[in-house]
Amino acid sequence: MGEKEVQYSEGSELNLHGEFKNCSKNPNHFNFIPVDQFRLEHLPERYRNDDIFEFINLTAQLTVRVVCTYVSKKRPLTWPGTSLKYLFSDMRGEEMNSTGTGRVWVVTLAKEGGGNEESDDELYQDGKEYHEGPDNGAEQEAAHVAREEMEQINTCVCENCKESDSPSSEFGWVKVITARYVVFNNKEARSASCHLFFDSDRGGNPKTILTVVKMATLNPKLDWCWLKCVTCWRGSLKCAKK
Predict the structure, then answer these.
(1) Which residue from 147, 88, 150 is spatially nearest to 115, judged by alpha carbons?
(2) DSSP character for 181?
(3) Which residue of 120, 160, 227, 242 shows the fewest CB atoms closer than 10 Å?
(4) Does residue 123 contact residue 131 with C-beta atoms inside 8 Å?
């Protein structure tokens, strides 16, 4: 199965720096090189060329911190086919702060007059349309944003625009891939956000936070999923589009 790692925090993201110092792996952190301090000479001599160095830096910029604040009641008790405890299975139905990582995969600018992306109108599993059903009988969960509703999205629906009287008409969709144990289903996806440049000074800017609209695709066997995010910050779109 390989090692699965997610950071669990009892407080907000502000606690992450303190938890870094208290991390059980901290004695080995002296070998860790922060992205903004990474230099060509850090590479093994045989790999010291500009193309490899640029590729690593670009990949780092496409890496996002995925923050999830809810644990679905549908998380299984154990990993499929094993007796090993599934991550956070003992916290199902609870609100909590967990962080994992993901990667920007596709960036699409919203079409003029509407932000609809037909390929993402439904939730797909193994190439087939999939309907999730409620997280629990008492909790009605919208498995996906319906096609009719998607066609009505003509302005940005990020957290800032949802609270604004004049939401931006210029926005884009950002598709992020992450592990399914990080975000299990739509119930969790709607509590999640993706943070660009989280390991640099720009990470504190609210504009670098992508609002997760829905889970677009999931692959239970390979344990990954696509998250469809939205932002109206041109800096995020331009950087990710590169």
Answers:
(1) 150
(2) T
(3) 242
(4) yes
25-62 residues labelled b (16+ CB within 10 A) or e (exposed)? eeeeeeeeeeeeeeeeeeeeeeeeeeeebeeeeeeebb
Residue with tokens 């500009």: 50
Q: How far apart are CA 195 and CA 5, in angstroms?
A: 18
pLDDT greater at residue 6 or residue 121:
6
- Which helix (H) or strand (E) segment holds residue 100: the answer is strand 95-109
Question: Token pair for residue 109?
Answer: 């600018």
User: What was the pLDDT predicted at 199?
Assistant: 72
Other Cβ atoms within 10 Å of 139 Cβ, number: 11
Q: The pTM is what?
A: 0.78
Set out the domains of the chain in order of their start, with CATH numbers: 7-132+148-241 (2.40.10.10)
d(CA 134, CA 119): 23
173-184 per-position pLDDT tens digit: 899 999 999 999
Q: Does the pLDDT of residue 84 top 80, yes or no?
A: yes
Closest CA to 203 of 107, 7, 67, 4: 67
